[in-house]
Amino acid sequence: MICGSMFSGKTEELIRRMKRAKFAKQKVEIFKPSIDTRYSDEDVVSHDQNSIHSTPIDSSGNILLLASDIDVVGIDEAQFLDEGLTEVCNKLAYNGVRVIVAGLDMDYKGVPFGPIPALCAIADEVTKVHAICVKCGALAYVSHRLIADNRRVMLGEQQEYEPLCRECYKKATQGEANKNV
Ligand code: ZN
């Protein structure tokens, strides 16, 4: 399990591990929710354009159908997939498949996101990666949304989100609350 905020390098870490397995002649396949079409329909593309081929899926159940005969299954942006993903990953792991999942730990309000908390609980290993707070340079804790939009799922990049540490997030959200009064 690779989890963390936006701009923390989750996808880069997933790609690194998948490429390493591929180099060892293991059969690898990356899946990502079809909702995430920010860069390309078919490629998992990280912010630094270091890409690897992926298969878009609508639901976690598709992974079991598509992952037969695969040694290493990678799943990117897993927070957008359904809660059934936990059982799918367990099934794969019990069948001897190595499963590497990357996802946002929390939404922009700091609430645990979709199947990620359950996946962290059942994972053999959890790597929490951190971005750097853009205000003070400490390790970031959450992806703060810069524009007023209350939808939970809003795909974004640097214009819409900024990584902040707990202290700077507190200041930023208090400022917003005062503005709205
Ligand atoms: Zn800070």
What global shape is seen?
elongated
Give the radius of gyration: 17 Å
Q: How helical, in percent, are the residues?
A: 25-40%
Largest sheet: 6 strands, parallel
Oligomeric state of the chains in view? single chain
Backbone structural class: alpha/beta
Say which molecules are bound, naming each kind only once: zinc ion
Quick tags:
181 residues; alpha/beta; six-stranded parallel sheet; two-stranded antiparallel ribbon; 5 helices; 29% helix; elongated; binds zinc ion
Overview of the structural elements:
The longest helix is centred in the last third of the chain and has 15 residues. The protein contains 5 helices and 10 strands. Helices cover 29% and strands 22% of the residues. The model has no long low-confidence stretch (mean pLDDT 89). α3 runs parallel beside α4. β3 and β4 form a beta hairpin. The chain is elongated. It has a 6-stranded parallel β-sheet, with helices on both faces. 36% of the residues are buried. With 181 residues, it is α/β, with parallel strands linked by helices. Bound molecules: zinc ion.
